[in-house]
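Handout, page 2. Input:
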Amino acid sequence: MVLSRFWLVIFISSIAFVIFSLFSGNSYTIDHVLNGKKDDPILISEQYIHQIPAFIKDSITKSEDKTFTINRDTLNADTTYVFKNKVVKIYSGVQKSDGLLPTCKSTLIDLILPLMAYLAFFCGLMELLIISGASEKLAKLLSPVFVKVFPTVPKNHPSISYMTLNFAANFLGLDSAATPFGLKAMESLQEINPEKDKASDAQIMFMCLHASGLTLIATSIIGYRAAANASNPADVLLPCIITSFIGTIAAFLIVGIKQKINFKSASLVVGLMVLIATIVGLLMYVNHLDLIGKNYFTSNLSALILVGIIIFTLIFSFIKEKKFTDASTTVYEAFVVGANNGVKTGVTIFPYVLGMLVAISLFRNSGLFEIISNWIAFAFSNMGVSKEITDALPVAMLRPFSSAGSRGFLIDSMNTFGADSLTGRLSSIFQCSAESTFYVIAVYFGSVNIKNTRYALGTMLLVDLICVITAIFVASWFF
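Output:
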């Protein structure tokens, strides 16, 4: 219900603001909201050639392509004059994101189809894990901890192994693998959900822990910083880990208090200590490496783990081939069945993702998001927050809505202020310390047709806020 109302508010308010801007004269056309593409110039006016200032008119007539651009400065948009059919079209600024119709197309072609391919492959592997008995063994191993965190999940339930693989993939920055594992976990948890259209306690806990974004190897962030010529691309690694870890603990405590989980459980404490020890140990190892060593380690560890999971699954399935025979199938046929289920899951979640991304596209292109972010930045500046921090806030604000959009702000902030500036580093921490909340909710709850997400959205947004505040303190402390 909360998600539905939030979606309606974004959609209706964005459309209303677009119409208001058109009739109030603040916008010349709203075509870009429907048909424009990201980074396309925005048409702001049309004039006859004789109405144009003389120096611009002369420049246009002398130009071979009948075009003239005024380069103001790096902080302001260029203004371009294009003369055609007796009319000069004036463009200024660029499109923030794809319009409504291109978003529909790109959601299917650039997002859902690749996601379906990932789902097909990893769901095929998970089918092998199920039939071979590997997932059952993993569930038995981790049940003592998971039954404390997820008290409504039966001991040795298959969802435990899927959630473990999802957390591990997120931890290592394996986004392509994390989503299929997570969707399989939601599907498995839905089987024991007594109210099929309402999120269960276990599903909410899983979603909030997943969305908190605990990441050890932020390979993509390191890559963006290296491309922006950062002196040490990996210098944000430790702040990212600290921020995302605090976000994960916050999510666990908030949901745990709501669900009345016993935090004094010995197995839960031991599990938490093992996790902390693992993080600290890896941090100490990475910290003693030089720049090249850090880049080599972070770029290869995740890939090696993923390859290791694939090899283990195939070898274990080969060893347990008799189980496949008993199930009247073969290893390859089981993989195909699992892959087919992955494709079906992709088809199921498409409408949920489409609806959310179209609303976000309208929100950004309407100009409403920019106004709200400017108000928040103004409020922070009046509270004494430095400009270096407020300049990074657009990344934090857009991150819950769109990973690609916030990534664009991240790259722009590093290009504008420098990768080694506090703004550039803080933007990097914002980008890697949380998930795209609305996208995640649409995908995961949509995959099992849950309509009532209960308090999941509010908790995830609160955790996002905690991560933002933590990131500011951590970045200020480190840099």
